[in-house]
């Protein structure tokens, strides 16, 4: 509980540190408006038109159901890959043979394009939630696995020997030595995998589902409704930024405070 209260107490500081990011967003919107004037509304609607469409979408109860469905699929697949990738990565990091054997498998998983996995998943599972979730898991797993593996493999051997020579309790070694170091590698991998999950889920829904934000994007594409397509993209980006900077970033700073 003390950990949660400290995060809430320091929340204004975290929010202030994101002001530079907000400034870059406004710069992006200005460039966006210039591009609209150059290429026209059909190619790139103006920010004003897009945000009006966004407002209309958010006043439609149906879109909230589609957003919830996409979030459910994305997080279900992400948490599956998080659990499996973290556990297997840490285990592989402690055993050299497992680490060497896993390299070609990870290379194949990283090198295979997500679109190929979507096609295979459609053959295996058909048009269903399983296709979308499987694609998220298979695309996110290598990122988390490699982060966990590197975090475990790069543990300072001298530090481990010191802990053993002083007969430190297992709890102290786990939370004061092993966990902070491994987490410094694992957490960025989680954030990267979350971003990957969000991108993959929309592509998978667009190609293999008739529900979710991706399916709504497919409808907007077929109708050449660019403002709606951009409004849906803003919803996806806003959701991801909220999760990363409002939820994950404060936790990361608190857990990594030992670096200071």
From TrEMBL:
In terms of InterPro entries, this protein maps to:
MetI-like, MetI-like_sf
Highest taxon above the source species: Bacteria
Asked whether the keyword Metal-binding is assigned, the reply is: no
- Where is the protein situated, by its record's location annotation? Cell membrane
Domain ABC transmembrane type-1: from-to ranges: 67-247
* UniProt keywords, alphabetically: Cell membrane, Membrane, Transmembrane, Transmembrane helix, Transport
Give GO terms for biological process.
Answer: transmembrane transport
Membrane topology note: Multi-pass membrane protein
Write out the GO cellular component annotations: plasma membrane
Q: Reply yes or no: does the keyword Cell inner membrane apply.
A: no
List membrane-spanning regions.
Answer: 12-32, 74-98, 105-127, 133-152, 182-201, 229-248
Q: Which family does it belong to?
A: Belongs to the binding-protein-dependent transport system permease family.
Supply the name of the protein.
ABC transporter permease
Q: What broad taxonomic lineage does this protein's source fall under?
A: Bacteria, Pseudomonadati, Campylobacterota, Epsilonproteobacteria, Campylobacterales
């Amino acid at each position: 509980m003390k950990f949660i209260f400290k995060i809430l107490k320091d929340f204004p500081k975290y929010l202030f540190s994101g002001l530079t990011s907000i400034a870059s967003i406004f710069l992006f919107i200005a460039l966006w408006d210039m591009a609209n004037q150059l290429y026209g509304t059909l190619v790139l609607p103006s920010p004003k038109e897009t945000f009006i469409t966004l407002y209309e979408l958010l006043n439609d109860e149906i879109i909230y159901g589609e957003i919830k469905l996409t979030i459910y699929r994305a997080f279900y697949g992400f948490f599956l890959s998080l659990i499996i990738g973290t556990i297997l990565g840490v285990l592989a990091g402690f055993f050299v043979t497992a680490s060497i054997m896993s390299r070609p498998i990870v290379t194949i998983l990283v090198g295979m394009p997500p679109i190929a996995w979507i096609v295979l998943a459609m053959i295996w599972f058909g048009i269903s939630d399983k296709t979308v979730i499987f694609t998220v898991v298979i695309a996110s797993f290598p990122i988390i696995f490699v982060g966990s593996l590197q975090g475990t493999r790069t543990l300072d051997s001298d530090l481990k020997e010191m802990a053993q020579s002083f007969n430190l309790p297992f709890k102290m070694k786990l939370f004061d030595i092993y966990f902070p170091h491994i987490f410094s590698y694992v957490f960025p991998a989680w954030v990267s995998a979350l971003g990957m999950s969000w991108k993959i889920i929309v592509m998978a829904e667009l190609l293999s589902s008739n529900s979710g934000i991706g399916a709504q994007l497919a409808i907007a594409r077929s109708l050449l409704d660019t403002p709606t397509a951009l409004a849906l993209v803003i919803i996806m980006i806003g959701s991801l930024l909220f999760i990363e900077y409002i939820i994950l970033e404060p936790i990361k700073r608190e857990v990594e405070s030992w670096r200071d």
